[in-house]
Write a structure and sequence with these properties.
Elements: E1 3-8, H1 12-24, E2 28-34, H2 38-45, E3 51-52, H3 56-61, E4 67-70, H4 77-87, E5 91-93, H5 101-114, E6 119-121, H6 129-139, E7 146-154, H7 164-183, E8 187-193, E9 204-210, E10 215-221, E11 229-236, E12 240-242, E13 250-253, E14 256-259, H8 265-268, H9 270-286, H10 294-313, E15 317-318
Parallel strand pairs: 1-2, 1-4, 2-3, 4-5, 5-6, 7-10
Antiparallel strand pairs: 7-11, 8-9, 8-15, 9-10, 11-12, 13-14
Helix pairs in contact: 1-9, 4-5, 5-10, 6-7, 7-10
Length: about 325
């Protein structure tokens, strides 16, 4: 059986997902797409023999769609995810789940009312082989007990994180999720600072304390100029484990010996996206959610909101979290 997937939003992310499904996910095929740019929708749909829906809602309700991927603008995510829940269809929603914590909680409430999980968040780093090896090293006792985590997240330039607050909610949010997953722990407090006082406050540095006491540093620099660069080191009581950049070749030129730095996140995490989509398709066919849940999306929004408040006030902020509902245990 092949999962018939409808994709809402066929910009760079949506188009890449469509290509990945058609070339590397045998369990699924793209059956319908929707985008407000009709010409773009047809251009993306034609090579994979997919139909073009007249609206996002029509795609969700279509009898030709078993499951949905949401890649539309952030402010549409919560309502579309709730429409998928109402239709009883599994959905992979790109981050964030919503613009505000309140809106993301409404998605959680919709799942709780339905009595089943249908929503998975697009926190693809959880599927990256490097991050998975780091998590395994900690769980297997290879580096002892965790004490600190150091994260770096740099972009050559960014159009999606064009506000100081957006750097936290749109870029840093990946680190806010991945440290919870790596450590199997919750964030207790966060402080976000920047050496830039006015205008776009970029770069930013977050210092985080987990509930267990583990300390985390997160540097985010969305206009670092030189390329896309993600690093992470987990420091334990008997060793450390770090991401090794995926550099297939080195070059000597003009007196420099080095490796190329990627300039886009899709290329850097292509394996993670492929593994994410493959796992999601299999889970959707089996009626389960094993990936990042709606609750994880809600938690990311709550932590990000505390980070934004810290950036504005300069002080450390507590992260107020309600107990995790049994549905997500």
């Amino acid at each position: 059986m092949s999962l018939r997937v409808g994709v809402i939003g066929v910009g760079a992310m949506g188009a890449d997902h469509i290509n990945t499904i058609s070339t590397a996910v045998p369990a699924a095929r793209v059956s319908e797409v929707y985008d407000f740019d009709v010409d773009r929708a047809y251009a993306v749909a034609q090579p994979v023999s997919a139909g073009v829906a007249g609206s996002a809602e029509a795609l969700i309700d279509s009898s030709a769609v078993d499951a949905v991927i949401i890649c539309s603008p952030d402010h549409t995510h919560a309502d579309l995810a709730k429409a998928c829940i109402a239709a009883g269809k599994p959905v992979l929603c790109e981050k964030p789940l919503a613009v505000t914590a309140e809106d993301s909680l409404s998605v959680v409430d919709a799942e709780l009312a339905a009595g089943r999980q249908l929503v998975q968040l697009g926190f693809m780093r959880r599927y990256d082989p490097g991050y998975r090896e780091m998590r395994d090293a900690l769980r297997n006792g290879d580096i002892g007990e965790a004490r600190m985590v150091h994260c770096v997240h740099r972009n050559a330039s960014s159009h999606t994180s064009s506000t100081s607050e957006g750097i936290v909610t749109g870029s840093m949010v990946h680190e806010l999720d991945i440290v919870r997953w790596l450590l199997d722990d919750e964030i207790a407090t966060i402080r976000v600072e920047s050496p830039v006082a006015e205008g776009l406050r970029d770069p930013q540095l977050a210092t985080i304390q987990m509930r267990s006491g583990v300390l985390v540093s997160v540097e985010v620099f969305v206009n670092a100029a030189y390329g896309y660069d993600v690093r992470c080191e987990l420091v334990g009581t008997s060793g450390t484990v770090s991401l090794v950049p995926p550099n297939p070749s080195s070059i000597r030129k003009a007196g420099i010996d080095g490796v190329r730095v990627r300039d886009d996140f899709i290329g850097r995490f292509s394996d993670a996206y492929r593994l994410e989509l493959s796992a999601w398709a299999e889970d959707a066919l089996n009626g389960v959610v094993h990936g990042p849940s709606a609750w994880d999306g809600y938690v990311a929004n709550v932590v990000a909101a505390s980070g934004v408040a810290s950036l504005a006030t300069g002080g450390r902020q507590n992260v107020p979290l309600d107990p995790r509902p049994n549905l997500y245990s």
